[in-house]
Amino acid sequence: MSRTEERARPPTMADVAHLAGVSHQTVSRVLSAHPNVRASTRAAVLQAIDTLGYRRNFSARALVTRRTLTLGVVASNPTLFGPASTLSGLEAAAREAGYMVSTVMMRRYTAAALEDAIDHLSNGGVEGIVVIVPQRETVTALAGLRLPFPVVTVEGGHDLPIPSVSVDQELGARLVTDHLLAAGHRTVWHVAGPPDWLEAEARVRGWTAALEEAGAEVPPPLVGDWTPLSGYRAGQELAGRVASGSARRRSGQVTAVFVANDQMALGVMRALREAGLSMPGQVAIAGFDDIPEADFFTPPLTTIRQDFAAVGQASIRLLVSRLEAPATVATENERMVIEPRLIVRGSSTSS
Amino acid sequence: MSRTEERARPPTMADVAHLAGVSHQTVSRVLSAHPNVRASTRAAVLQAIDTLGYRRNFSARALVTRRTLTLGVVASNPTLFGPASTLSGLEAAAREAGYMVSTVMMRRYTAAALEDAIDHLSNGGVEGIVVIVPQRETVTALAGLRLPFPVVTVEGGHDLPIPSVSVDQELGARLVTDHLLAAGHRTVWHVAGPPDWLEAEARVRGWTAALEEAGAEVPPPLVGDWTPLSGYRAGQELAGRVASGSARRRSGQVTAVFVANDQMALGVMRALREAGLSMPGQVAIAGFDDIPEADFFTPPLTTIRQDFAAVGQASIRLLVSRLEAPATVATENERMVIEPRLIVRGSSTSS
DNA sequence: GGTTTCACTGTGAGCGCTAACAATTAGCCC
DNA sequence: GGGCTAATTGTTAGCGCTCACAGTGAAACC
User: Fold this and answer.
1) B212 and B295 fall within a common domain
2) Cα A176 to Cα A188, A209, A259, A284, B99, distances in angstroms
3) How far is A65 from chain B (nearest CA, A)?
4) Does A91 contact B107 at a Cβ distance shorter than 8 Å?
5) CA–C1' gap, A58 and D16, in angstroms
6) Residue B133: per-residue pLDDT
7) A81 close contact with B: CB closer than 8 A
8) pLDDT, position B79
9) Strand D: which bases are under 7 Å from protein Cβ?
10) Is A276 at the interface with chain B, CB within 8 A?
11) Statement to judge: residues A318 and A247 lie in one domain
12) How high is the pLDDT of residue A329?
């Protein structure tokens, strides 16, 4: 390490070969675990690798093999429980399959931002991407792009000619709604997520369908933006519609609320409590997501649990199968649907 | 796209050059925004690029420039608010600086797992890494590694000869503790995070110091693992030590609790409520992190807010400065400390 | 013993790009 | 119009690796 020389170049395969007294190709064979290398040769090479601290050059390898073994992920706000969990599941599955994961987080959900994100990943040499941007605008923008690598969407709906993985949001909403109806409520109110989110929309659909099938009235849904604050505001609104004094359950009155995510449910609960209402006595509540906190709300929140690890695994499987399939095999546009699960807690049942 | 041919190879710079009637070098110049290219030539090249849908080959570029423009991040459980937010801040700052981010999430916090993670990133050609693994074991393991690229730690403490960024946890703990003491409490109890986490330890230190400086008794801290459940258990323990009946504040009795994170605080609050205790009337509570839910707990939680975006930015700045500094400039081991902020809410004040 | 067959190792080319330099053209001055 | 400079373009040589193929020697077979 002389003072004048540039940052020392890392050793190359040729350096290793020289030190071990073999050809660079033999070094390559050792590193690729090729069977036909004499044990003593292999040992010498490994020894040389060790003393030199040699590592294969990623770029050179990628150039000749045409594989970067890197997948891109376009994610959204990772402080929401769902996206964060999915991201984690994706990464685990990718690593398992031998791929790196490069992530881009979108802050605004516009078509332009999506293109920027994909462009950035594309410049980074990813072989394919998973897009978790479950807003209508970004999804349609994605459908309009012609990309030179495979794409898989998560929670992007199944209407697009793109392989997709999603949790059956509609089913989840039905499960909750049916659960509340079964508990004897005349109908179930709903605090929805932001209307441009497909998941929010699907939950509304499931809730509506469940009510209609049960012959229950469908009250107008309130709308939030996933945040506790928006839930709180919706809760104040709802509190005004709870039967006061007599427990007579008249039409138009709130006795049960399905909130589209747990964070908003927390806000709703707070507003109801401030209004002096008891839960589940006067109003039963249920959420969606099963965040770690949900079991410790007061009362513990009935909710829907989604298997995000499974979502991540499925997406990677879909993507990797496209990357590794021979070009001759036409891979159809698979759709994978993960079933959610109802978690019943004290917010919906008096027991 | 004939049926027999392999997956069509993407066009190369030579293809573009041929179509535009120039040399490949001119194409390169256009793409690198070199000034000395005639406008008409540039237009022709751009036209050819467009019709061919050409994109520069990442690997070939990286091979010759010796730059992958990719940073690695070793992160931990991203469903915790802090890590997720930091990751987000890192990614934003990296993109701003023109770098990709490859992420590896650790699931177990052992030295071996850390080495695996770093190895994986290293194989992916990262130019440097940010390690957010704030456990003692992983931090010491990291210190023992001799890596061929720059490393920056986040929340890894400042004892290591490694550039580091962290929030002043000790200060945060002092702020909370002082706040509670100022409210008239004789002393403040503590529910700590897992002992192998440096942050947990620093918060204990800050809490202890604040108490000692105020001449207050230092009660034995309870220990949790960041989860609401562990907080709940600690809360049950604490509930048994709250003065019952008379409000006399005797020594050894609990009137104020500083919980090392908001999730555990939620558990504590639930346990206290189940024990029929009022907050902040009988017991004042404060947390740490300021998760989005904290303002909607019952009562709203006094807590410490950390500027994770700033942490992310600082780490990237530190790392990138090392990558882009000429080798001759000796970059000292900088330490950056971000100051946290006390957020006072209803859980600690009766107003 | 000569041929055949392996197991093992080496040689050469080239992946697609950028950097350095060479070559050409155009612009400008007197 | 010659000669100079500056602008523009082309040529060549790798970056460090893997692939395809060509060797080499020793064991195996008749």
Assistant:
1) yes
2) 10, 12, 10, 11, 44
3) 10
4) no
5) 9
6) 83
7) yes
8) 78
9) 7-12, 14-20
10) no
11) no
12) 58
User: Same domain, yes or no, for A275 and A234?
Assistant: yes
Domain assignment present for residue A63? The answer is: no
| Cβ atoms < 10 Å from Cβ of B8 | 10
B336: pLDDT strictly greater than 80: yes
pLDDT digits (tens, 9 = 90+) for A238-258: 999 886 644 445 567 899 999
A101: nearest Cα among A111, A79, A86: A86
Average pLDDT over residues A116-129: 95
Q: Which of A91-100, A243-252, A283-292, A334-343 bottoms out in mean pLDDT, i.e. has the lowest?
A: A243-252
C-beta atoms of B232 and A148 within 8 A:
no
Residue B57: nearest nucleotide (C-alpha to C1'): C16
Domain of A224, in residue numbers: 169-305
Is A288 an 8 Å CB contact of chain B?
A: no
Tell whether B186 and B283 lie within a shared domain.
yes
The reply to whether A173 and A264 lie within a common domain is: yes
- Residue A222, domain member (yes or no): yes
**pLDDT recorded at residue B2:** 32
Cβ contact, residue pair B270, A91, below 8 Å:
no
Q: What distance in Å separates residue A209's CA from the closest CA in chain B? A: 30
| pLDDT on residue A251 | 62
Structure tokens belonging to residue B118 = 């770093």
A327 in any annotated domain = yes
CA of B40 vs C1' of D23, distance in Å?
Answer: 53
User: How many angstroms separate the CA atoms of A245 and A254, rounded?
Assistant: 13
Q: CA at A21, C1' at C6: how many angstroms apart?
A: 24
Does residue A343 lie within any of the structural domains? no
Angstrom distance (rounded) from CA A206 to CA A171: 6
User: What letter represents residue A189's amino acid?
Assistant: W
Q: Give the nearest chain B residue to A3 (CA atoms).
A: B328
What's the pLDDT tens digit per position in B185-233? 999 999 999 999 999 999 999 999 999 999 999 999 999 999 999 999 9
Task: Identify the CA nearest to B234 among candidates A265, A266, A296.
Answer: A296
**Could you give the number of structural domains in chain B?**
3
- To the nearest whole number, what is the mean pLDDT of chain A? 91
pLDDT tens by residue, B28-83 = 999 998 888 888 899 999 999 999 999 999 999 999 999 999 999 999 877 788 88
Pick the closest to residue A174 from A213, A221, A206, A217 (CA basis): A206
Residue B266: which of A63, A100, A296 has the nearest Cβ? A296
What is the rounded CA–CA span in Å between residue A195 and residue A208? 15
Q: Does strand C come within 7 Å of the CB of B24?
A: yes
What is the distance of C-alpha A349 from the center of its chain?
Answer: 30
Residue B239 binned pLDDT confidence (cut-offs 50, 70, 90): very high
